[in-house]
Write a structure and sequence with these properties.
10-stranded mixed β-sheet; 4-stranded mixed β-sheet; Adenylosuccinate Synthetase, subunit A, domain 2; alpha/beta; Adenylosuccinate Synthetase, Chain A, domain 1; binds inosinic acid
Length: 464
């Protein structure tokens, strides 16, 4: 396998940082393709905590190149701060191991001000990270965004910024009544920041195109999770980018056939920050116990994360929405020793039992149907207990894809690979007996024979 996408399969914070870090050790290039510094990828190296928000986790390995693709929204000041933090941690960053697309959308002060004003004064609160992510993507779609390549010519930057501010000025003055920097001030600030960033600027499309031709091993590092995707997620309580698989193609700029394996990072329970529906949320002391034991505080904002049981109907939807080929089950240590263990296997919805949470379903009206599992008390030093194996099997059988990785702590060594990514694949044993038990029965077919992939491969062969 040469290419792999790592995608959060829930509402973010699934532990993508550590898995990306470990897998990037085996590959040549690590690419961020969407989101911005709203992400917080925590990696513990020799007991030292490093939180990366914008720079791909691959930067931690001397041999791999970190690429920020054009689908990312890029905050130049936050980038400078992070660059310094990474350098202070002893990591050497050069123009050889960090490349930023000249077409990333720049997050301006105006974007951040608008995000904050809407959250504090607007009628709908999303609970954003306040980093200006949504307004920056709005500018991109409205074709008035500032791109990284615009930062280097001051007079042109001023003209573009004036256009960019035009409508926002009315909002700042008359809707929100807040102060904002003039075009001249903002242009000069961005122009000065641009000087240090210029050397990292790169035509990342061509770079990745060449890398694929040369059979390089590439990892695509997703931020947030599928349920926060602007199209697939729990709209409007989502982020503003394509966090699902589609984001890799549009945000990194690579052809669809170039992603061979899609690894969904899945927390062994569910968490969510900010507003929005959450069917399996726990409001009792158990929810609080998981929250405290799992240190469920946002890596970017420090906010408390809401906690609940694993939601298989939502996960099944995530598998379909991003064509996940395996999952990594993280934070199993947090569930170890918990006295009660449940997993949501269906919803009762409008008098029917539903096992896949398709987007048409109003999640606020879905009542979870739980299966009680035998609690486990593993310390992960020995062989996994039967109870834990059963928990894993329950998930594999339901989703129809293997659990390729299990993680049980923040340290690099607290992990078991059941599948060998970027090497010859060792297929984990999978119990096929209960596949296809779901409505329609189709789920039972495609994990064994991926008909879609088969016809895609045939199509590629024919073209050649
Ligand atoms: P925004 O991305 O700052 O616009 O926030 C939109 C929604 O996505 C809010 O509910 C945030 O809490 C959530 N969100 C954004 N980034 C992350 C993340 O990295 N982890 C978890 N939630 C996130």
């Amino acid at each position: 396998m040469k290419t792999l996408a790592i995608i959060g399969s829930q509402w973010g914070d699934e532990g993508k940082g550590k898995i990306t870090d470990l897998l990037s050790e085996k590959c040549d290039i690590v690419v961020r393709y969407q989101g911005g510094n709203n992400a917080g990828h925590t990696i513990i190296v020799d007991g030292k905590k490093i939180v990366l928000h914008l720079i791909p986790s691959g930067i931690l390995h001397a041999h791999s190149v970190a690429v920020i693709g054009h689908g990312v929204v890029f905050e130049p000041e936050a980038f400078q701060v992070e660059l310094k933090k990474v350098a202070d941690a002893g990591i050497v960053v050069t123009t050889k191991n960090l490349k930023i697309s000249e077409n990333v959308t720049v997050i301006t002060s105006y974007n951040k001000l608008l995000d904050a004003a809407r959250e504090s004064q607007g009628s709908v609160k999303i609970g954003t990270t306040g980093k200006g992510i949504g307004p920056a993507y709005e500018d991109k779609i409205a074709r008035r965004a500032i791109k990284l390549k615009d930062l280097f010519d001051l007079p042109t930057l001023k003209i573009k910024l004036a256009r960019n501010l035009e409508e926002k000025e009315t909002l700042f003055k008359h809707r929100y009544d807040i102060a904002f920097p003039s075009v001249d001030e903002e242009a000069l600030r961005l122009f000065n920041l641009g000087k240090n960033i210029a050397p990292f600027m790169c035509d990342t499309f061509s770079y990745l195109d060449q890398a694929i031709i040369q059979n390089k091993k590439i990892l695509f590092e997703g931020a947030q999770g599928i349920l926060l995707d602007i199209d697939y997620g729990t709209y409007p309580y989502v982020t503003s980018s394509s966090t699902a698989l589609g984001g890799v193609y549009t945000g990194a700029g690579i052809p669809e056939s170039s992603v061979e394996e899609v690894l969904g990072i899945t927390k062994a329970y569910t968490t969510r920050v900010g507003e929005g529906p959450f069917p399996t949320e726990l409001f009792d002391s158990l929810g609080e116990e998981i929250q405290i034991k799992g240190h469920e505080f946002g890596a970017t904002t420090g906010r408390k994360r809401r906690c609940g049981w694993l939601d298989l109907p939502l996960l099944k939807y995530a598998v379909k929405a991003s064509n996940l080929t395996s999952i990594a089950l993280t934070k199993l240590d947090i569930l170890s020793g918990i006295k009660e263990l449940k997993v949501c296997v269906a919803y009762e919805y409008e008098g029917k039992r539903i096992e896949v949470a398709y987007p048409g379903i109003d999640l606020t009206k879905a009542t979870p149907i739980y299966k009680s599992m035998k609690p486990f008390t593993d310390n992960f030093a020995d062989k996994l207990s039967i109870e834990l194996e059963m928990y894993i099997k329950e998930i594999e059988n339901f989703l129809g894809i293997p659990v390729g990785i299990i993680a049980f702590g923040p340290e690099r060594k607290e992990i078991i690979f059941r599948k060998d990514y970027f090497e010859d694949d060792i297929q984990p044993e999978l119990d096929l007996s209960s596949w296809g038990r779901q409505a329609g029965g189709l789920e039972g077919i495609y994990p064994q024979v991926d008909l879609e992939k088969l016809s895609r491969n045939n199509a590629t062969t024919t073209k050649k």
